[in-house]
Specification:
By secondary structure, this protein is an alpha/beta fold. The protein has helices at 14-28, 42-49, 70-95, 109-117, 130-133, 141-148, 159-165, 183-190, 215-225, 243-255, 271-277, 292-299, 312-315, 328-340, 342-359, 362-377, and strands spanning 2-6, 32-37, 53-56, 63-65, 99-102, 121-125, 135-137, 153-156, 173-175, 201-206, 232-237, 262-266, 280-283, 304-307, 323-325. It has two domains: 2-179 and 361-377, Rossmann fold (3-Layer(aba) Sandwich), CATH 3.40.50.2000; 183-359, 3-Layer(aba) Sandwich (Rossmann fold), CATH 3.40.50.2000. It has 16 helices and 15 strands. The mean pLDDT is 93.
């Protein structure tokens, strides 16, 4: 079976990392995928390594950040997508897919192709839009819903996304969590790295630099615990999506006298290696659609502390497989706990890995998605 995938970007953040794992599973099950990618980027490099076919064709989103020129930009995006459609149609017809699979809700080109060519469409919804990335639909929610209902099947990344995006009655929405580990990952993680005794206790944030990610919580909580612990640090890994927010964080770090304790690593393409260096992982996003980082921390046996909302609290059970907080003071208490309470940490690590092994296997989540794809094609 041929399956056409549409991804709205070419970096290696959560949605595309999940896509790569799914594509590998498809190939193992004798499916033939083709990926439409809008730009050059690391995703293309990874597709080449895996001998997965792709086409780099520029297309656009149907969402954007609200501004005075928002409507003009929305119309421009719409026109540009229409102008690109003939190229997309040409390659789609040549490939002859049984299903078209949009890997996020950010771009509409997959559903446009589906309607024109009468090919079943699946939409994988991984984001909230307004709540997590401050994105508004170009022509309003009704326009968005109109095309959503044209899809043969919809996959929601979490119950939280399903409840917040799909208002009203929807019969074709399935909730499937991301798979975050393969058998090879388990082998890699089994190779333990000994940490030097004098190494600072390291808190890790794996996140794009964006206001929705709540990184300032971690910085302010670090200032609180610095009064009691002097050998600590906070490492932040992720590309900059908002330069003003990055400047705000820099200014905050200087103001709180934390320049020696906080470092920015930029984007990292091998997250597993970062988890190996961490003593605890922080997920501070206010409205996380699912919580991939929390799941990855669990499988990596690193205690995770997360903000008590959204998709994060679907994954973390407080004081069982992680810790939850509601404000900066509570976060500082949790951070102190993972430094001091070794018994609690060992119990959390044990339960977290057990939970992750039961719920976040690529093999199992891919099987659920393959079932949805097969049903949509028939």
């Amino acid at each position: 079976m041929h399956i056409l995938f549409i991804t709205h970007y070419s970096s290696l953040y959560g949605a595309n990392r999940s896509l790569l794992l799914l594509l590998e599973s498809l190939k193992e099950n004798n499916f033939t995928p083709l990926v439409f990618v809008p730009d050059k980027g690391q995703l293309i490099d990874e597709l080449k390594k895996r001998s997965i076919a792709y086409r780099k064709i520029k297309f656009w989103a149907w969402m954007g950040v609200s501004s005075k020129l928002f409507f003009i930009k929305a119309v421009m995006r719409f026109i540009l997508n229409l102008l690109t459609l003939p190229i997309l149609l040409f390659y789609t017809k040549n490939f002859k897919p049984s299903v078209i699979y949009s890997n996020s809700s950010i771009t509409p080109v997959g559903i446009y192709l589906s309607i024109i060519l009468k090919i079943p469409h699946i939409w994988h919804i991984r984001e909230l839009g307004k709540s997590d990335y401050n994105l508004d639909y170009d022509f309003g929610r009704k326009y968005f819903y109109y095309f959503m209902r044209k899809s043969k099947a919809i996959i929601s990344i979490s119950e939280y996304v399903k409840q917040n995006v799909f208002i009203g009655e929807w019969k074709n929405v399935s909730v499937v969590a991301n798979g975050v580990y393969s058998d090879d990952d388990i082998k890699t993680l089994s190779i333990k790295t000994e940490k030097p005794d004098n190494q600072p206790f390291t808190f890790l944030i794996m996140s794009v630099i964006h206001p929705s990610k709540g990184i300032e919580d971690a910085i302010e909580a670090l200032k609180i615990i610095k009064q009691d612990f002097n050998n600590i640090k906070l490492v932040i890994c992720g590309g900059v999506e908002d330069k003003q927010y990055r400047k705000y964080l820099n200014d905050l770090i200087i103001k709180l006298d934390l320049t020696e304790e906080v470092s920015f690593m930029g984007f990292v393409d091998k997250p597993i290696e970062m988890y190996k260096t961490a003593d605890a992982v922080l997920v501070c996003s206010r409205r996380e659609a699912w919580g991939r980082v929390a799941a990855e921390a669990m499988i990596s046996e690193v205690p995770v502390i997360g903000y008590n909302s959204g998709g994060t609290k679907e994954i973390i059970i407080d004081k069982y497989n992680g810790l939850l907080y509601n404000n900066i003071k509570e976060l500082s208490v949790c951070m102190k706990a993972v430094i001091l309470d070794k018994k609690l940490v060992e119990e959390i690590k044990y339960q977290a890995k057990k939970f992750a092994l039961q719920n976040f296997s690529v093999k199992e989540t891919s099987a659920k998605i393959l079932k949805i794809i097969t049903e949509a094609a028939n």
